[in-house]
Amino acid sequence: MIGLLLNGKEQQEIEYLLKREMDEILFDLEDERIADVVKVAMKEKYEILLSLFKRVVPADEYAHYKLNEKKNKKIKKSH
């Protein structure tokens, strides 16, 4: 386990970077050209990023970034 102290500006930067990366993954998960095997790996990465994101923002701000469970099942079934 690692502890990390951030000032307000650093927290905002971490939040911005995580949002940008998660938005990109969400966009790519919709792309039908990407193989389902790759999408599973992308989803795993997304879950890690979401876990980090939850630690730097209030609960109401990360609700938008929760993955839709139907999409998760669809990706897992085709894998």
Summarize it:
By secondary structure, this protein is mainly α. 72% of the residues lie in helices and 0% in strands.
Account of the protein in words:
The protein has 79 residues and is an all-alpha fold. 72% of the residues lie in helices and 0% in strands. The protein has one domain (8-78). The longest helix has 22 residues, at 8-29. The radius of gyration is 14 Å and the shape is elongated.
Topology (elements, then pairings):
Elements: H1 8-29, H2 36-56, H3 59-62, H4 69-78
Helix pairs in contact: 1-2, 2-4
Can you tell me the residue ranges where pLDDT is under 50 for at least 5 consecutive residues? none
Distance between the termini: 32 Å
Number of helices: 4
Average pLDDT taken over every residue: 87
The helix fraction, in percent, is over 70%
Described by the principal axes of the CA atoms, the overall outline is elongated
Please write the string of helix (H) and strand (E) elements.
HHHH
Q: How many strands in all?
A: 0
Q: Give the helix/strand class.
A: mainly alpha
Largest sheet: none
Strand content: under 5%
Into how many domains do the coordinates divide?
A: 1
Any idea what the radius of gyration is? 14 Å
Which short descriptors sum up this protein?
mainly alpha, 79 residues, 72% helix
